[in-house]
Design goal:
Blueprint: E1 2-5, E2 16-19, E3 29-38, H1 41-47, E4 64-72, E5 84-88, E6 97-101, E7 105-107, H2 114-121, H3 123-134, E8 142-145, H4 151-162, E9 166-170, H5 174-183, E10 187-189, H6 194-201, E11 207-212, H7 216-223, E12 226-234, H8 248-253, E13 256-259, H9 262-268, H10 270-285, E14 293-298, H11 302-310, E15 317-321
Length: 322
């Protein structure tokens, strides 16, 4: 079969579209014929050796796949050949067929497309965990979402609204601000003079929950805009700059800085993760959340697509098709 292979750590251009051994279904594993493959920011970091995890080379990157089950191991009980499913893993997703542990496989109800299923896994899964378990957001609170035109940003807007929050989206361009508005943000801002703009937008009260996948100067502005008892969620650093935090701000403003490591959460608390996914699927079928799919591209274009994602040139979810 064909796959995207990282033969060594290095630039994204070093990725190759090449033959790769067929996966096998053994024990409690399932083999999925991919219909859609999700592209995520950490995928690009991983192949460059810039992520927390560093698998032995060569390897196939990719954590999300949706399609049909074509083989099951002898111990598999929850799915069968022919079922439509999505699966989440650490590696192996950028391939025509993917092996996944049974416990990571999510049966898909009718009406959930393969592309939307991929978006619901990592992008929406991250935002849901961030706002529900880490931010513990409450109806009527004010949520500020940085990177509001990207996948996790639009997910945070939609999930925040589903949980009853008033949402302020912050995005870098007119195109991305339009996406944030379409996603349901009550107020949409740019990054210029962000601290003053947030003060005005909150009537001087400050932000109850801040959602930051960007880092850098944007984090600095948001941290100075938090309200008393607020929760500032650290999602990632798409800007490329990990900010230094003056801890006296948390003291005098009475807010918490909360780390969000969704990947580790799915491994440490699989039952809670499964409950979250059931809630997300329910919101999807009820029309409360709807991923923005920016585009679908051939699997062979993975390097170019990842370059766009890492350069923050994408708006919404990007999908690869075998």
């Amino acid at each position: 079969m064909k796959a995207i292979v990282a033969r060594d750590y290095g630039p994204l251009d070093n990725l190759v579209y090449a033959d790769w051994p067929e996966p096998e279904a053994k024990g409690r594993s399932v083999v999925i014929q991919a219909e859609a493959i999700g592209v995520n920011f950490p995928d690009g970091l991983l192949v460059q050796g810039l992520y927390q995890m560093k698998p032995p080379v060569p390897f196939v990157p990719g954590m999300e796949v949706a399609g049909r089950v074509v083989a099951v191991g002898e111990e598999v009980r929850s799915v069968k050949v022919g079922d439509r499913v999505a699966a989440l893993g650490n590696l192996g997703g950028y391939a025509e067929r993917v092996a996944a542990p049974e416990g990571s496989v999510l049966p898909l109800p009718d009406g959930v497309t393969a592309s939307d299923a991929c978006a619901l896994l990592c992008g929406y899964g991250t935002s849901h965990y961030a706002l529900k378990q880490r931010g513990q957001i409450k109806p009527g609170e004010t949520l500020c979402v940085l990177g509001a035109g990207g996948l996790t940003g639009t997910a945070a807007i939609q999930i925040g609204k589903a949980m009853g929050a008033r949402v302020i989206g912050v995005a870098s361009s007119e195109e991305k601000r339009a996406i944030a508005t379409e996603a349901g943000a009550d107020i949409v801002l740019g990054y210029d003079n962000l601290k003053d703009a947030l003060k005005e937008a909150t009537g001087g009260k400050g932000v109850d929950v801040g959602y930051d996948p960007v880092g850098g100067e944007s984090f600095d502005a948001l941290s100075r805009s938090m309200g008393w008892g607020g929760r500032l969620l650290v999602i990632g650093f798409a800007s490329g700059t990990i900010p230094k935090f003056p801890v006296n701000l948390a003291l005098v403003k009475g807010f918490s800085v909360v780390g969000v490591f969704w990947g580790d959460f799915t491994r440490r608390e699989p039952a809670v993760y499964a409950d979250n996914m059931r809630e997300l699927i329910g919101w999807y079928t009820a029309g409360k959340v709807k991923p923005v799919i920016e585009g679908e591209y051939p699997l062979s274009d993975a390097a170019a697509v990842l370059t766009r994602v890492l350069n923050r040139g994408s708006a919404g979810k990007i999908i690869l098709k075998p």
